Amino acid sequence: MNFLASEENETAGLAIMQACNHQFRLERSLEKGKQILRLVQCNSEINGYPHQPQFQCITTEKELAKTEVEGEEIIFKVSAEGQSYNFYFGKEEENLQLLYENADGRKLNPESVGGMVGTMLCMFASSNGKESKNSAEFEWFDYTETELSCNVQAILHV
Predict the structure, then answer these.
(1) CATH code linked to domain 11-157
(2) Which end of the chain is more exposed for a tag (fewer CB within 10 A), N or C?
(3) How is the chain split into domains, by residue range?
(4) pLDDT in tens, the chain (158 residues)
(5) CA pseudo-torsion sign 98, 25, 115, 45
(6) Residues in domain Beta-xylosidase C-terminal Concanavalin A-like (predicted)?
(7) Exposure of 105 by Cβ count < 10 A (0-12 exposed, 13-18 middle, 19+ buried)?
């Protein structure tokens, strides 16, 4: 992805999710005039089902890691081993830096919510409800399953 946020509401990156509002977002954004990369964990407490009149959903976001980044181009890598996720970033695929280690993947599948279809990986760009003429260009996405069936790796060049 090639992306520079021009406003603080603009963001782009990689999301790993299983249930609505249960996700990890490895995202680039703007904060106090500086380009940043952050890992956000999003969870929600759900009471009832969306089609019921008494349905309630309270969503919380927690910033797990943050660092300042330079340049427009960045590579993201996420590796999973069992329920543990590791998040990397950098300019060269052979020289990525660890941003966050051992994120708890069980946070993606809350027991209180049924009907999950599996974990999804996706690229995203958002202006979070505000008008924007900015864009993110995703050059490639690679998904590799390793020898162990529980160990997957996704690399996103952003």
Answers:
(1) 2.60.120.200
(2) N
(3) 11-157
(4) 999 999 999 999 999 887 767 889 999 999 999 999 999 998 877 777 777 888 888 888 999 999 999 999 999 999 888 888 999 999 998 999 999 999 988 777 765 445 556 777 889 999 999 999 999 998 888 887 765 534 344 444 44
(5) positive
(6) 1-144
(7) middle
